[in-house]
């Protein structure tokens, strides 16, 4: 399974530390009037006549694919000119309102929420729809209503920000297939259109890390001998720019492990006794497990065990 990395979730309510407000948001566009443009307008201005999801033409953009079938079977992928295609098939919140978090090294932390189901085209079509795409570095998880972006994109003949795939073959004319593509800029890629510029890198604070929505990527290894051996964990902590700011190399979990790094608060992780038991995580006063779903929104993305290990991604707010 490739980079199932969920997570940097947050901005989840209940987090102990609120995001810092001193640094500019990633899509704070600076023009002559110093007016912030909308996310849609910003991307539209960047792509010209090319489609934002055409990563072969736009080397600084990646295509985000979102797909469901028959009210479930959620699927996503990221494809860019570098690194190929990464697929996300294992969702633990594939239902209306479930916010699934992921990580990709090229666009950073992102999430997808299918916000509605059924009732489309006079109830002739069913299934999950109206996806909300959010990327951590884009205006601190700004909500991108994909179907609205599709509607806006179809208003002229210039490049599209998002598109919805129309299934016209008999095999797919049951109204249950839903699929969309959007294009988003890679994290850390600056751009300029006329006098308008942007920077998607959040400045580092005094501690040498970028505050805001941070994340962790966890590899959980199976017990070599379940009768006597513990699980092992390998953990990478990422700041709001997706840079590694702390690490736990592969360690047998005979006791809780403390991860020190550039963040102002240590992270503690611990495993349970069985595969079904979640991993517990502490960041200061922020305590959660990989199974928590506050307000129906998964705090972590948990993949299945595959070849002796599974990948988990979680998010938290670091200041």
Characterization of the model:
This protein is mostly beta strands and 319 residues long. Helix content is 5%, strand content 38%. It contains 2 helices and 20 strands. A 5-stranded antiparallel beta sheet has the order 3-2-1-9-8. Strands 14-13-12-20-19 form a 5-stranded antiparallel beta sheet, with no helix packed on it. The longest helix has 9 residues. The relative contact order is 0.21.
Offer a few descriptive terms:
five-stranded antiparallel beta sheet, single chain, mainly beta, 319 residues
Describe the structure concisely.
This protein has 319 residues and is mainly beta.
Order of helices and strands: HEEEEEEEHEEEEEEEEEEEEE
The rounded Rg comes to: 20 Å
Helix share, percent = under 10%
How many runs of DSSP E, i.e. beta strands? 20
User: Proportion of β residues?
Assistant: 35-45%
Distance between the termini: 32 Å
Number of helical elements? 2
- Uncertain spans: 1-37, 190-199
Q: Overall pLDDT, averaged?
A: 78
The gross shape turns out to be globular
Tell me the strand order in the biggest sheet.
3-2-1-9-8
Structural class: mainly beta
Strand count, sense and barrel status of the largest sheet are: 5 strands, antiparallel
Show the helix and strand layout.
Blueprint: H1 39-47, E1 61-69, E2 72-80, E3 85-88, E4 99-104, E5 108-117, E6 128-135, E7 144-145, H2 146-153, E8 162-164, E9 177-185, E10 191-193, E11 196-198, E12 212-221, E13 232-238, E14 244-252, E15 257-259, E16 267-270, E17 280-283, E18 286-289, E19 300-302, E20 309-318
Antiparallel strand pairs: 1-2, 1-9, 2-3, 4-5, 5-6, 6-7, 8-9, 10-11, 12-13, 12-20, 13-14, 15-16, 16-17, 17-18, 19-20
């Amino acid at each position: 399974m490739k980079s199932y990395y969920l997570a940097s979730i947050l901005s989840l309510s209940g987090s102990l530390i609120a995001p810092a407000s001193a640094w500019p948001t990633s899509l704070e566009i600076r023009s002559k009037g110093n007016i912030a443009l909308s996310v849609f307008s910003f991307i539209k201005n960047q792509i010209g006549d090319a489609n934002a999801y055409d990563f072969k033409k736009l080397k600084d953009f990646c295509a985000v694919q979102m797909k469901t079938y028959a009210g479930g079977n959620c699927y996503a992928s990221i494809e860019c000119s570098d690194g190929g295609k990464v697929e996300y098939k294992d969702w633990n919140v594939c239902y209306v309102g479930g916010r699934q978090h992921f990580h990709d090294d090229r666009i950073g932390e992102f999430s997808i929420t299918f916000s509605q189901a059924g009732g489309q085209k006079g109830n002739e079509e069913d299934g999950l729809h109206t996806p909300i795409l959010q990327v951590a570095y884009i205006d601190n998880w700004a909500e991108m209503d994909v179907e609205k972006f599709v509607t806006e994109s179809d208003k002229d003949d210039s490049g599209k920000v998002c598109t919805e795939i129309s299934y016209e073959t008999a095999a797919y004319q049951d109204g249950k297939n839903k699929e969309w593509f959007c294009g988003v800029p890679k994290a850390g890629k600056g751009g300029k259109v006329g006098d308008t510029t942007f920077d998607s890198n959040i400045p580092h604070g005094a501690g040498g890390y970028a505050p805001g929505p941070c994340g962790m990527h966890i590899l959980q290894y199976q017990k070599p001998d379940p009768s006597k051996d513990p699980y092992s964990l390998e953990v990478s902590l990422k700041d709001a720019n997706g840079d590694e700011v702390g690490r736990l190399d592969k360690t047998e979990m005979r006791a809780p492990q403390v991860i020190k790094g550039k963040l102002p608060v240590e992270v503690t992780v611990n495993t349970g006794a069985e595969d079904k038991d979640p991993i517990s995580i502490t960041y200061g006063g922020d305590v959660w497990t990989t199974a928590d779903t506050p307000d129906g929104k998964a705090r972590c993305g948990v993949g299945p065990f595959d070849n002796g290990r599974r990948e988990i991604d979680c998010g938290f707010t670091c200041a």
